[in-house]
Glutathione S-transferase 3, mitochondrial (Rhynchospora tenuis), 148 residues
Amino acid sequence: MAIAIEFPKEYGYVVLVLVSYAFLNMWMSLQVGNARKKYRVPYPNLYASEERNKDANLFNCVQRGHQNSLEFMPLFFALLLVSGLQYPLIVSGFGTSYIIGRFFYFKGYSSGIPDKRVKAAMLSFLSLFGLMICTALFGVNLVIKETN
């Protein structure tokens, strides 16, 4: 069975949130590149070795902040794009707060003191949870439509 997708006029906000995250990801990538130069961590090493680099923890915190954001990116994009089909404004709000949380998560982590990321992580996870609820409601609504 095929389902025709109609995009609500507000769906453009969802797309703009996605693009905003792409810019944040690019900025984080640049921060990792700058940290590579600053702490002398050559490619292809993903992380610095503490045995060979006294600044390994500082670099690894920057790298880990970006890596963690990459790990959650597919989930964030899927939830955002799917739930935005039914709840574009609410989802855009959750997406924006997720991005703000991710920015401060990265800033806190890249400080070299990983505990500074915790408050921002809470904002990101609450936002992600909101997106999960919206996506689940979207799925339930599709099932209900199908049974009627």
